[in-house]
Design a protein that fits this description.
The chain is α/β, with parallel strands linked by helices. The protein folds into two domains: about 60 residues, DNA polymerase, domain 1 (Orthogonal Bundle), CATH 1.10.150; about 290 residues, Aldolase class I (TIM Barrel, Alpha-Beta Barrel). It has twelve helices and 14 strands. The strands form three sheets. A ten-stranded mixed β-sheet has the order 3-4-5-6-9-10-11-12-13-14. Strands 1-2 form a two-stranded parallel ribbon. A two-stranded antiparallel ribbon has the order 7-8. Strand 3 and strand 4 form a beta hairpin. The radius of gyration is 21 Å and the shape is globular. The chain starts with 6 loop residues before the first strand and ends with a helix. The chain binds S-adenosyl-L-homocysteine. S-adenosyl-L-homocysteine binds next to strand 10 and strand 12.
């Protein structure tokens, strides 16, 4: 069989691996054996799989592969945050970030090469968009990070949480993201608790309903403004799915689910969305929705014209929300010295959206 037609086993979740193995005339339990080798023992070589017969290993060698993204570079922040640039094909690279905390280790994973949405305060948006990541490229980020952490001199750091908050809009790559999350939470693979896997969305309403049918991971929603007019400027997707519809979908997501809460993300932009009046509006808007609010200090990037709200205004904003009875925390900025903080992930994207071209033309028009 030609090299390029090999099945990458990282593209298959347990059910699909079972189909793959039974199709070869093997027993379904081979699927969980394979998951353990790949994910728990971090093995990418069939020859090392000693409980699999020599003849089956030889056949797997011919028909399948375990192909993970290649590390281009690794950077460590003063605060321990680690960022990897991963090459996924000849023209494109993505970024993945590990954030160590005392009680957990969070991996921030990308779901697309660039992003098709054009949120005005996000650096990934400036990169344009190339394509969706495959399941293998999403789960491959965990594989690579996990292996790299194991090989470090201080190897006590493990991935206990995953947030799909890297490059891209995960709910616009629905099937691959859900399949990758199935592998993350599979006991034979990484066995992460569903509560410790979080999908963050800028508000793709129909996909929120589909997500509830498909899995029960945690949901974070990038809200950023209490009213439509402002949200449209920050998150243009709001024109398609305005706040009211978005919040109804959020309510449906938590409905009937004991203890489930939505996390609302709110980036703090000085003079844009951080006034006391906006805090009160936000407080009223979110009444009755089981949720917590995450205030994210804006992380600047070259070419951004926004500024981060002062620590004092963030604190006042938070106080008002707390007085309105809403659990509110300010997200600690991590890894900003290596451009690994929220909204700073850029990678290397061969833009196919013509966005950069459009921006350049605009600049020319403005200056000319
Ligand atoms: N597309 C998804 C996943 C990206 S998550 C989403 O929008 O939710 C990245 C989080 O960081 C989002 O809440 C995003 O709005 C926020 N973010 C983007 N740019 C930022 C910046 N420059 N500073 C701080 N937060 C930012």
């Amino acid at each position: 069989m030609a090299e390029h037609t090999k099945v990458n086993l990282l593209d298959l979740d347990r059910q699909e691996l079972e189909v793959f193995f039974t199709g070869m005339g093997e027993k379904p339990f081979r699927a969980s054996q394979m998951l353990k080798w790949i994910y728990q023992f971090a093995v990418d070589d069939f020859d090392a799989m000693t409980n699999i017969s020599k003849s089956l290993r030889a056949r797997l060698e011919r028909e399948a592969e375990i192909r993970v993204p290649e590390i281009v570079s690794e950077q460590q922040s003063a605060d321990g945050t680690i960022k990897w640039l991963l090459r996924i094909d000849s023209g494109n690279s993505i970024e993945t970030v590990f954030i160590p905390e005392t009680d957990r280790g969070t991996l921030c994973v990308s779901s697309q090469v660039g992003c098709a949405l054009e949120c005005s305060f996000c650096s990934t948006a400036q990169q344009g968009f190339n394509r969706n990541l495959s399941t293998a490229e999403i789960i491959g980020q965990l594989w690579v990070a996990n292996k790299a952490l194991q090989c470090m001199p201080r190897n006590d750091r493990v991935i206990s949480n995953v947030v799909l908050m890297g490059m891209g809009e995960p709910l616009l790559n629905f099937n691959n993201v859900v399949r990758a999350m199935n592998i993350m939470t599979d006991d034979h693979a990484y066995g992460l608790s569903k509560r410790r896997v979080t999908v963050s969305t800028s508000g793709v309403v129909p996909a929120i309903d589909r997500l509830k049918q498909a899995t029960d991971v945690s949901l974070a929603v990038s809200l950023h403004a209490p009213v439509d007019a402002l949200r449209e400027q920050l998150v243009p997707l709001n024109r398609k799915y305005p706040i009211k519809e978005l919040l109804q979908a959020c309510k449906r997501y938590v409905e009937g689910e004991h203890k489930r809460k939505i996390t609302f993300e709110y980036v703090m932009l000085a003079g844009v969305n951080d006034s006391l009046q906006q805090a009160r509006q936000l407080g009223r808007l979110l009444q009755g929705i089981p949720c917590k609010i995450n205030l994210i200090p804006f992380n600047p990037f070259p070419s951004s014209s926004y500024r981060c709200s002062s620590a004092q205004s963030i604190d006042r904003f938070r106080q008002i929300l707390m007085q309105a009875g809403l659990i509110t925390v300010t997200r600690k900025t991590r890894g900003d010295d290596i451009d690994a903080a929220c909204g700073q992930l850029a990678g290397k994207v061969e833009d196919r959206s013509k966005r950069r071209l459009r921006q350049q033309t605009k600049e020319v028009n403005f200056s000319g």
